[in-house]
What we know:
Elements: H1 3-15, E1 20-24, H2 28-42, E2 46-50, E3 54-57, H3 69-78, E4 83-88, H4 97-110, E5 115-121, E6 134-138, H5 144-161, E7 165-166, H6 173-178, H7 185-199, E8 201-202, H8 204-220, E9 224-227, H9 240-248, H10 255-260, E10 267-272, H11 278-289, E11 292-296, H12 298-303, H13 309-323, E12 326-330, H14 333-336, H15 339-342, H16 350-364, E13 369-375, E14 393-397, H17 402-415, H18 425-431, H19 437-453, H20 460-468, H21 473-476, H22 478-491, E15 493-494
Parallel strand pairs: 1-5, 1-6, 2-4, 4-5, 7-8, 10-13, 10-14, 11-12, 12-13, 14-15
Antiparallel strand pairs: 2-3, 9-11
Helix pairs in contact: 1-2, 3-4, 5-7, 7-8, 13-16, 17-18, 17-19, 18-20, 19-20
Bound molecules: adenosine-5'-diphosphate and magnesium ion.
Amino acid sequence: xxxxxxxxxxxxxxxxxxxxxxxxxxxxxxxxxxxxxxxxxxxxxxxxxxxxxxxxxxxxxxxxxxxxxxxxxxxxxxxxxxxxxxxxxxxxxxxxxxxxxxxxxxxxxxxxxxxxxxxxxxxxxxxxxxxxxxxxxxxxxxxxxxxxxxxxxxxxxxxxxxxxxxxxxxxxxxxxxxxxxxxxxxxxxxxxxxxxxxxxxxxxxxxxxxxxxxxxxxxxxxxxxxxxxxxxxxxxxxxxxxxxxxxxxxxxxxxxxxxxxxxxxxxxxxxxxxxxxxxxxxxxxxxxxxxxxxxxxxxxxxxxxxxxxxxxxxxxxxxxxxxxxxxxxxxxxxxxxxxxxxxxxxxxxxxxxxxxxxxxxxxxxxxxxxxxxxxxxxxxxxxxxxxxxxxxxxxxxxxxxxxxxxxxxxxxxxxxxxxxxxxxxxxxxxxxxxxxxxxxxxxxxxxxxxxxxxxxxxxxxxxxxxxxxxxxxxxxxxxxxxxxxxxxxxxxxxxx
Length: 496
Ligand SMILES: Nc1ncnc2c1ncn2[C@@H]1O[C@H](COP(=O)(O)OP(=O)(O)O)[C@@H](O)[C@H]1O
Ligand SMILES: [Mg+2]
């Protein structure tokens, strides 16, 4: 959301006499600036507190003896006037009973005036006792129009200060701003400055550089990755129904569609047999629809720092919203939200909270983020996720049919500079009964190694030999696949 929107909405909260406003944000600077504007709008003073300085009116000297959290609350309770009190990092003290008690008392007192305590924090930790007094507000990441403004003013400042060759045409400014979506204002400033000062020039190349800086920055945060996708749905063999579904919704994210009154599609779950093109399809959608692809990496969610998972999840979802329209791909979603973990005591409810956050987001998100979740093991998923309405559709990907195998052979031969028309696809596909797409690809590449070693052109016989020496997974996993099919027969739509 823009700081403008935040300014308006926060003003409304203060006027509605919420005693405590809890702002979820990674951007303390932006919060302080926004609150200063809110205070100005309302004609009330802004006070800022830090544990090192104590409480001070914005721009003024700190009030004596207000550094301690309990002291500052006592001080505030003695003050008569209206006002906003931004307590930085105060969430750290919300596990102390005395502090919580004092806050509750203050809340009672505040309900009669335009006074509010504002706590800003990147994580949401509100004690149950306080829940009724607290208005939760999410600042979100800056949106396109705010980024545009910032880009224009930063470029002006930087080019005035340094000798920068400005060769970026004004029509490219919005594109530059778009390349910065998903970052906080502070990150935006840093990335812009670095990019401009690297070669002391600003041109179309700078945008590329900024995009790759953003990719790296987000990746380092551990949970999300901006991916470039080379291939579209034409590189996916078979899965005609899935493709038709997607084809029908192409353009559903456009302005025209919105004017027409269409809601953008929310997302699909693709479940089914391993190695048959689930992940491939997820990626291809982004390319096909010409949208940015964001991959969600669950290992980053859990392993980075204990206790940071919730924060990381919320941040990732906000990044996706800031980048929208985009495709958010959650591969093997059963690993992110394993059913088994949800009821268990071992993680003190963390999995449950994460799952709750995610479901709420699925339900309430406003930005056009098309979610594509893939899963190999549906039995490991919490049933709540599969309930009607969570996804637009649940697709089941089965082993490819004869015709589908033919087209998969053709795709993979073609991708390796072979003329598929010269191969007896019928024969190959017949021999590869029970093979998945990945196994078909493997047969083609292995045969190519042979051909290369023999310094001979690739022949159907070489591929056939590879097929015959492969024992496809579908044989070993027959029971598992049967169970999947049975499950899917009742609950999913066939993708093939
Ligand atoms: N239907 C298909 N069409 C073309 N290639 C496929 C297909 N299915 C699998 N492959 C090949 O196998 C690789 C692995 O498949 P993937 O989509 O990751 O399988 P999974 O269903 O397990 O997610 C793909 O990158 C692709 O090269
Ligand atoms: Mg996969």
